Task: structure prediction
Amino acid sequence: MPKIHPFLWFRDQAVEAAKFYVSVFPNSKILGDQAKTDGTPGVLAIDFELDGQRVTALNGGDYFTLSEAFSFFIDCQDQAELDHYWEKLLDGGAPMQCGWLKDRFGLTWQVVPKQLFETIYGPDPAGRERATAAMMEMVKLDVAKLEAAYAGEG
Result:
């Protein structure tokens, strides 16, 4: 069976981005890099793992840019874990709607608590509707507000 992993295109910040990402996530490390092949100094590509998921990043120049069409999804256990990743990744970046953010390198992340799915996919149709409506009003997701909306408390 083939191994599949993300390949990210950066203008010239692949190494800086990789080092930042491995500092944010546990069980992460730099695997290695490839020197530029055109005789100029520097790194062409770098391989790293984020919590066991291999990722390759390329210093590819201005031909392509990252967009919201690709994002990493972080499954958080609770509000504390969500807050941790939100604050780390948001440093130098920009918040977006519904738990999304763009980091300082232009990569999009979805920072999502497991409680989101417990509410928007819960057994109560009216609760699902309320929780979904509450989520649509949020930037950073709030577990207590999602659960309260699902329960009809506010």
In short: The chain has two domains: 1-64, 66-154. The two ends are 49 Å apart (CA to CA). The longest strand covers residues 43-50.
